[in-house]
């Protein structure tokens, strides 16, 4: 979250940030792959591969059927099984598949692509990125 000092993106130094892990993990992975695709600069993913992998692991475990969480529509409060969070998580996982491919890790690319699809190959996630 950018915090209450927008347009200064300094976050919530007071510890009062909203807990939106599915939303935020998906966002950062999508932004990372978009940045690479637009700039060709892979230095960010090279430096932060372990953190990106950790966030993707969270999405693999939690995104398909989101628990009681808030999302971008936080005015509605916490809700379970939000479709928008599931979709954000699945696209985030596929973003990590793309990142893995860029890094030359074909095994991880395959693993994350399969995890994103969850045996349903009717939805062409690769066309979204």
UniProtKB/TrEMBL annotation:
<feature type="domain" description="Glutaminase A central">
    <location>
        <begin position="2"/>
        <end position="116"/>
    </location>
</feature>
<protein>
    <recommendedName>
        <fullName>Glutaminase A central domain-containing protein</fullName>
    </recommendedName>
</protein>
<dbReference type="InterPro" id="IPR052743">
    <property type="entry name" value="Glutaminase_GtaA"/>
</dbReference>
<dbReference type="Pfam" id="PF16335">
    <property type="entry name" value="GtaA_6_Hairpin"/>
</dbReference>
<dbReference type="InterPro" id="IPR032514">
    <property type="entry name" value="GtaA_central"/>
</dbReference>
